[in-house]
Amino acid sequence: MQIEIIQEPIEDVLIVRPFEQGAEPANQEMFKAEKGETWWYSSKELWLGLGKTPKLPAVTKIFRSLFFKRKDRWPAHIILDGRGCRAEWLGNAVNGIVLGGYDLQLYKTEPKAVSDFFKSGTLSILTEKGSDVEQSATTALKTAQVQIRIMDLMNAPSNYKKPATLADWARKSGAEHGYTVEILEKAALEKQGMHALLAVNKGSDEPPVMIVSEYNPAHYTQTVALVGKGVTFDTGGISIKPSANMHLMKSDMGGAAAVLGTIELAAQLKLPVRIIGVIPSTENSVDGSAMKPGDVIGSYAGKTIEVIDTDAEGRLILADGLHYAVKHYEPDVLIDLATLTGSVIQTLGYEAAGLFTPNDHLAGQLTQAADETGERLWRLPVWDEYKEEISSDIADVKNYHGKPLAGAIVAAKFLEVFTAGHPAWAHLDIAGMAFGDTEFAPGRAGTAYGVKLLIAYLSKLAG
Fold it and tell me: Any catalytic annotation for residue 315?
């Protein structure tokens, strides 16, 4: 898709004209401008209702829903009437329009048709404004294109998505967009002493990797390390999961996906922030060599871990990733993302990710970015009173407390042990947000959660 800015309508091209409720368009008795309402004013003019004073994330959803519902019927050229609209508002509309064409039919031999508009068409934005609109629209287009790539990655099954697949994705992205990528393969992980990552991998035929990406702009004042959980399939190991929803565990690399997408988009947008991406990646499978409950394993930080539950594997691989990021890069800010616990879903449902940080300033910055993008966060405590829950009799810490309470908080306290006391660390538990039920898929599907959130945070940090 290409985007252009125009100041006059183009004859015989479909115009999509948005209205807020109360804006009093013509024929108001027939069109109330309620949220998501559509009305064909003529064969070449489609009115779209936005409801009362919609927030920016709602604008994205309204436009995405419209373009998704008839994504096989759009003409090759469409005009969005953006007269009187802010550049930021138009950016959210463009993001929704592009996402509306997302095609989930990755492996169908006879897929349903999708309009060429989304691939090779033109979106003209009718506005009296100039370059700020063009920049906002271009950024929105790039963002949506990265989100779509991340959704493809999330939706791929494990036989098409292995740790090596994530590594190849990062290599190709780095080569195309100008950032460096180093892949630590199994021999290097053994040499470095990534004992926790290697322990989780023991039951799998697919070798583990640690993906280390570095976006290094010419000018920057801040270094941010992003660490993402990259479990490409999670059986639960010996502590095996129930079969009913195990097929959804192809999504257990949602944190890794968010990190991959964020670095690629930051490089495209040339953000003046140095970004380090660290992704420990493995399957969590079962065979005779698999890690067992009760085992004591090592870690890159040198601390010993008693494994109470092999299904609490994400925090084990993140332990090595977090300490690697701190030791080798000394970042100003350290953020990890992971589809980590069912507990956070029990607490927050599918409306927000859990935010854990002892740093009030960082919490405020991330929450502001979350509110602006609609990728919401809710802060939960990481008080030291929870430390006793990870106390082990025979090792430095244990990976699970075995209680039906405070599961997400205890997981965060475990991760904190491996941050070397970093003063600006945050953990985002995105288990309920990275892969969910939406109107855009018949079943659960990837959402690319975290990309817009992190880019908004990094953009403010750069400013």
Answer: yes
